[in-house]
Amino acid sequence: MKVLNLNYSEYDVIYLGFxxxxxxxxxxVASFVDVADLKDKVVRPFCTNEEGAFGIADFELSAAVKMKxxxxxxxxAVKSFNVASCDEELRNWIG
Length: 95
Known about the structure:
Rossmann fold, alpha/beta
């Protein structure tokens, strides 16, 4: 499966955004992780959902990213109804 034609060597940090589906990330994100070259990359996940939490997504995604040679950093979870007002929180998270 070819998800994106990216030269991953140009990136040190990969921001990965998705909605939470049934307490975890969508299978499309799993497909991306399966084909992406994440060796020595930092992956910073962000998500939206109704609870404002990652559920088990951070645990599952951490394992998948680690298997690909990368490292998952602390992500940002935003409640869906707060998306329009999360600019400051997003700026603080990005750094």
